Amino acid sequence: MSIMEARVIHASIARPWHNVYAFAANPLTMSRWASGLSDGLRRDGDAWLTSGPLGEARVRFAPPNDFGVIDHLVTMPDGRQVNNAMRVVANGDGAEVMFLLLRQPSMSDADFERNAQWVMKDLRTLKELMERDDHGPEG
């Protein structure tokens, strides 16, 4: 049995957790904060499609839930699957958003660090969007 190296990347957001979850879990708003989805997501049956540098990927999300779970399975163009665990939980009156980054078997140290920085950048963007005075994501 092999276990991948894991890193929890998180951000505290000064908005109620359920507001953060509703925005972050919506595939139609993800392109506003998840830079890897800059081309957006397109519905394809019970999954979503996105285009990226490696081609078209298929994304399946956990169903809407009351637990803040935004887990998603990404199937790459070569058939490789990557499980991404993501949660939004209450943190006082605000929220904590956590993403579990798993180091894939062929990933170098530099690639793993680059991916971690990318996820942190995306979580910072989500935080900025959610904490705007006008509460932009709700509109």
What does this structure look like?
The chain has a single domain (6-138), classed as Alpha-D-Glucose-1,6-Bisphosphate, Chain A, domain 4. Helix content is 22%, strand content 35%. It has helices spanning 17-24, 109-131, and strands at residues 6-13, 42-44, 47-52, 55-61, 72-75, 81-91, 94-102. It has a 7-stranded antiparallel sheet with strand order 1-7-6-5-4-3-2.
Describe the secondary-structure layout.
Layout: E1 6-13, H1 17-24, E2 42-44, E3 47-52, E4 55-61, E5 72-75, E6 81-91, E7 94-102, H2 109-131
Antiparallel strand pairs: 1-7, 2-3, 3-4, 4-5, 5-6, 6-7
Short recap of the structure:
This protein has two helices and seven strands, in the order E-H-E-E-E-E-E-E-H. It is of the alpha+beta class and 139 residues long. It is globular.
